[in-house]
Write a structure and sequence with these properties.
The chain has about 350 residues and is an alpha/beta fold. The protein is about 40% helix and about 15% strand. Strands 5-2-1-6-7-8-11-12 form an eight-stranded mixed beta sheet, sandwiched between helices. The protein has a four-stranded mixed beta sheet with strand order 4-3-10-9. The longest helix has 20 residues. The mean pLDDT is about 95.
């Protein structure tokens, strides 16, 4: 028999990945907080879309459960794999909530999230039952009940989207199996450097998510605003210095190497000029770049709590631990929280743009 798989969180990323898995024949149950979303999937299927025609289809094979009805799972066999795909601030409570439904026989939990949540999950389920998966430059959006679209082209051979790893860096059978499953969606690989990959993704997210949320701009709009673009580079430079002080091996960050961004943040003229030119032109080939906004900006627009304290806030906290100053990240956290709580309106002027 195939593995029983649950996605705790059927929003943009969880619904996208879970929908693909179900479409490709896996036994998937989608669990979510939003009643209308679950009811729409039950009645009409999960409508997935992308930038090409072949990425548009309706998933009809996924099972569904309302989060409030978790106890109905008691009458079903336990899950072999539970993906945690909620916002970081919900990680602890939902992991505790789904733990009773995880198989005691080699069942494990996968963090498929932004930020640094394996350290939250592992104390609850056990380090040996915790795996991480990073989705890099995937840009998915839940734009209506039962409707998810991908705003960026598939990575394919040009960019590895999914990176799967154990906390201790081993390449295990379960990691290999997860790579197989994710490869049916887009390019995927096993990594021996999960924590370094996590910080790399955190840095990439940190220089875009909160900035779009605070300014109200799209990613392309931020890149084309001189002051905001340079603010973003400073945020990245601080994060890179903190990550290295933590002893992490950082990977390539989209089109940039860590050294390149770090030097640009220090104002090395030729490097800064090169980085800025790439930022201003990197989204030119994406037909949806003019409307593409990262997840935190989407949350801000919907009036939802943001992950800023688990993203740039984490960079600030870790910076204090290792003695690396992070004034730009601190300013960004303050700005996002001010917009989120209604003290100020989202605008480039919030960050000096």
């Amino acid at each position: 028999m195939g593995k029983r798989i649950a996605f705790m969180g059927a929003g943009a990323l969880g619904g996208y990945a879970g929908g693909y898995f179900a479409h490709n024949g896996e036994d998937v149950t989608l669990i979510d907080f939003w009643p209308e979303h679950i009811e729409t999937i039950r009645a009409k299927g999960l409508d997935l879309d992308g930038v090409t025609d072949e990425e548009k289809f309706v998933v009809t094979k996924a099972k569904t459960v309302h989060y409030k009805d978790l106890d109905t799972l008691k009458s079903q066999p336990p899950f072999d794999i539970i993906f945690v795909t909620v916002k970081s601030y919900d990680t602890e409570r939902v992991t505790r909530a789904v733990l009773p439904y995880l198989s005691p026989n080699n069942g494990f939990v996968v963090s498929l999230q932004n930020c640094w949540n394996e350290d939250i999950i592992a104390p609850i389920v056990g380090r040996e039952r915790t795996v991480g998966t990073i989705a890099s430059s995937i840009s998915v959006e839940l734009y209506g009940a039962g409707k998810i679209r991908r705003m960026a082209a598939k990575g394919g051979a040009n960019h590895t989207v999914f990176r799967v790893g154990e906390i201790d860096g081993r390449i295990t059978d379960r990691v290999t199996d997860l790579v197989r499953m994710f490869s049916t969606i887009d390019s995927a690989k096993a990594t021996t450097n999960l924590q370094g990959e996590r910080w790399t993704k955190l840095t990439q997210n940190g220089m875009s998510n909160g900035i779009c949320a605070a300014t109200g701009l799209t990613g392309q709009g931020c890149d084309n605003n001189d002051a905001i673009r340079r603010f973003s580079i400073q945020v990245a430079g601080e994060s890179i210095r903190v990550g290295r002080a933590l002893g992490l091996k950082l990977e390539k960050m989209g089109k940039f190497m860590p050294d390149q961004l770090e030097q640009a943040s220090r104002g090395v003229p030729d490097v800064l000029s090169e980085v800025e030119q790439i930022m201003k032109t990197r989204k030119a080939a994406n037909p949806r770049a003019s409307i593409q906004r990262p997840s935190m900006a989407q949350d801000m627009e919907k009036g939802r709590k943001t992950e800023i304290e688990f993203m740039n806030g984490l960079i600030v906290r870790k910076g204090k631990e290792v003695g690396i100053p992070t004034p730009y990240n601190e300013r960004l956290v303050e700005a996002v929280l001010s917009v989120e709580t209604g003290k100020v309106k989202a605008s480039p002027t919030v960050l000096g743009g």
